[in-house]
Design brief:
Layout lengths: L2 E3 L9 H7 L8 E3 L7 H5 L6 H13 L3 H12 L10 E5 L2 E5 L9 H19 L3 E6 L3 H10 L5 E8 L5 H8 L6 E6 L3 H13 L1 H7 L1 E2 L6 H17 L7 E6 L4 H11 L4 E8 L4 H8 L1 E3 L19 H8 L4 H14 L1 E3 L2 H10 E5 L2 H15 L5 H11 L7 E5 L7 H8 L20 E3 L3 H11 L1
Helix pairs in contact: 3-4, 3-10, 4-5, 5-6, 5-10, 6-7, 10-11, 16-17, 16-18
The structure holds pyridoxal-5'-phosphate and the ligand N[C@@H](CCOP(=O)(O)O)C(=O)O.
Length: 458
Amino acid sequence: MQYHSTRGTAPVLDFEGAMLAGLARDGGLYVPGEIPQMSREDIAALATLPYEEIALRVMLPFTGMSEERLGDLIAKAYGGFGHTARAPLVQLSQGHFLLELFHGPTLAFKDFAMQLIGQLFQDAMSRRGDRITIVGATSGDTGSAAIEAFRGLDAVECFILFPHGRVSDVQRRQMTTPVEENVHALALDGHFDDCQAAVKDMFNDHAFRDRVGLTAVNSINWARVLAQVVYFFSAATSLGAPHREVDVTVPTGNFGDIFAGYIARSMGLPIRRLIIATNSNDILHRTFETGDHRKEGVQPTISPSMDIEVSSNFERALFMAHDRDGAAVTRMMAELKAQGGFTISDNAMAELRSIYGSGRASEDETMATIRRLHETTGEILCPHSAVGVKVAEEHLSDCPMITLATAHPAKFPDAVTEATGLHPALPERMVDLFDRPERQTRVANDLDALKTLIEGRL
Ligand SMILES: Cc1ncc(COP(=O)(O)O)c(C=O)c1O
Ligand SMILES: N[C@@H](CCOP(=O)(O)O)C(=O)O
């Protein structure tokens, strides 16, 4: 399988090459040259399989790896999850189901990909005898999942930039309390988009990138997206796919998770529509309403992990909607940077609207959804999942709806307690999280200073 950049001019790479590269050298994101197809029979056969076996069947054709090697890494990745189903589905109401993606080690959906790419990186590094430097940007969950996956690994130095004061206390402590010297939590003065821009700028400085052996663990890395494709299959087949269509609502920020759903759909999984659910940072919802993709500034919300305006994987969706035209994507990305936005052609918008729907939830609506769902179903939602449920409810039909529950409520206790009166408990293995000493470095939003700090610590 070959991978091509969304900007069209970077070298074409195989799976391992694309995974280790992270961002393509022309600033684009890697996508598969073609999307492997699964027949109705292949999909039907998944319905009774354990999660790990579904993961193997879905991911294998993208990787060029042997079945035995990939199977072994998958088994190691998911062995530590706190639920035998890995991604259990619970019913909320007639025709509406919640896919719980928060049973991994750091209690968010990021663990599904991060635990696996931890294994994939380790495997590649031990064969190549190389070292890598990871620099990641996080609004809270990617960073904690990455630090958990890479802590203590000899061949990896892992730097995570998070927006100072804009992640929850639990998220911050998950990043700042691990004692291993190879992980570095950097609290940046700015918001998530500043962190993500700094990471991309480091990749676009080719001399720096090559000197430190830079790689990415954000969903700009194709391997992250691939691992997230699997639970769309596990959920849809347990509701009757391929014999029954489903709709899926995805709480969305950086567009990685919903793009994974698009890949599942393109492989043949009968997902009728993918619904983008945004909080009041609603650039994606506005884009679908107007065809104009334009920044307005990011406001802090009670669903902080989705406080994102430069939604990096939307680039992948644009590339596919423009018939893989890298030059068109390059123009739009340049306009976004220079003018704060761009207008999408009618044809591309029609293509996007045939796949995706959208909606937004205000802060009050998010709180009311947490409260109501607790009262009516007993389910305690995190604020991100509540954004998803609220938007999904506006799109219910005779087609079953799956809403992704992307984080555990205990990661965001303030909003949950205010809405329900209950304090969601952390799992037993984390009960001393607030007693552990923190280790973090406060950094300015200054690219050169960041690069100096990183090189100084290698
Ligand atoms: C809890 C939670 N929900 C939803 C999202 C949005 O996912 P994505 O960035 O893949 O759109 C994030 C961050 O990525 C998150 O951490
Ligand atoms: N919400 C994310 C933001 C980064 O998303 P990613 O999927 O591109 O890593 C976070 O929690 O960090």
